[in-house]
Description:
By secondary structure, the protein is α/β, with parallel strands linked by helices. It has a single domain, classed as UDP N-Acetylglucosamine Acyltransferase, domain 1 (3 Solenoid), CATH 2.160.10.10. The chain contains 4 helices and 20 strands. The strands form 4 sheets. A 7-stranded mixed beta sheet has the order 3-6-9-14-17-19-20. Strands 2-5-8-13-16 form a 5-stranded parallel beta sheet, with no helix packed on it. Helix 2 packs antiparallel against helix 3. The longest helix is centred in the first third of the chain and has 19 residues. 35% of the residues are buried. The model has no long low-confidence stretch (mean pLDDT 95).
Amino acid sequence: MTELEKLDAGLPFDVNDPEVDARKLHAVIGCQKLEQIDVRDREEKEKAIRELFGQVGKNPNVLPGFRCDNGLNIIVGDEFLANYNVTILDISKVIMGNNVWIGPNTLITTINHPLSPKGRRQHLGISKPVAIGNDVWISGNCTILPGVNIGNNVVVAAGAVVTKDVPDNCVVGGVPARKLKDIPDDTDE
């Protein structure tokens, strides 16, 4: 298998492989383009977001300082917001529903590396997709780790590190994040 085939299959892969690295070029150029657009030019910003991401719903907004690893693996629904300095390391898919707001300085990552120095010296990475439901607010300075699934109607409290799946209708917080309380789903009212 090529390193790209290993990556796509969820197997350990060489992060320095030229084909793997080529995917990042799309993201670097797309983020650079987005950063250069006047923040008041909503039409041009939305066009750049649509070129960078794999799929975008209605009314996306990405504020300055956004970074990603691929871009095409980011799928967002309607009313998406990435606040200042959001990073999405989308070596694997990051799929988000409608009404997802991401607070400033937040990291969503699909990539991990071996614990062993030998594996790190071999430049190995392994990726797992992240899924985020509808009506999710991720507060500032949060980290969402590889393989995590976040349900619908969830609030991730500021500074949380989400290491495992989060059920619907709750607030999570802490390091590692844990369920703090249930919240009602009032979307049908």
